[in-house]
Protein: DUF47 family protein
Amino acid sequence: MARKNEYNYFDAFVNLSKFSLNSAEILHNTLRNFGTINLSDKIKEMHEVEHSADIAKHDVVNRLLKEFLPPIEREDIISLSQKIDDITDAVEDVLIRIDIFNVKSIRPEILEFTQLIVDCCNSLYLALQEFENFKKSMTLHSQIVKINSLEEEGDKLYINAVKNLYQKSKDPIELMIWTEIMHRLERCCDACESVADDMHSIVMKNS
Structure:
C-alpha cells in the first residue's frame, strides 16, 4: 500500500491502462468509421497516446530506481508496467498495418475483434483499479477471470475469422493482408491476458 505523499505504483498501473483503453477505443472508432475519416490523423492521434504511455512507463521505472521499499517486488512492478504498455503498442501496430497494407474497406469480423479488444482493455482498467486492495477486494478475481474469458473469445474469433477468410478468398494478397491483421488483433487480446496473469501471480505471492 502506498503511504500518504508517496508515489503510488498502483495508481501508475491504472494510468498506464488508461492509455491502453484509449488506444483500443481509437482503433475501434477509426475502423468503424473507416472511409469517412482521415486515417493519417488517427495514426497521429494513436502515436501520441503511445508516446505518452511510454513516458508514463519510464516515469514508473525512474521512480523505482529511487525507491527504498516498494509495495511489491521491483521485478513485478517493472514486468507489469511493461506488459500494460505492450497492449498499447500492440493496438497501435494494428492501425499501422491497416495503413501499410493500404486497406480500403474493413471486414465485419474485424469490428467484432476491435470491440472485443475495447472490452478486454476496459476489464483490465477496472481490475487495476481494484489491484491496490487485492487482499480485500471482492471483485478483482472475477475481473481477472473475465479478462481470461475475453482472451478465449479472441482465440475463437481469430480461428473462425481466418478459416472464413481462406474459405471465401483465393487472392494471395488479400489472404496475406488479412491474416496478418487478424494475427495482430489476436496479439492484443494475448497482451491483455498476460497482464491479468501477472496480476494473479502478484496476488498469490503477496497473499
User: Anything to note?
Assistant: The mean pLDDT is 94. Residues 9-205 form a domain with the Methane Monooxygenase Hydroxylase; Chain G, domain 1 fold (CATH 1.20.58.220).
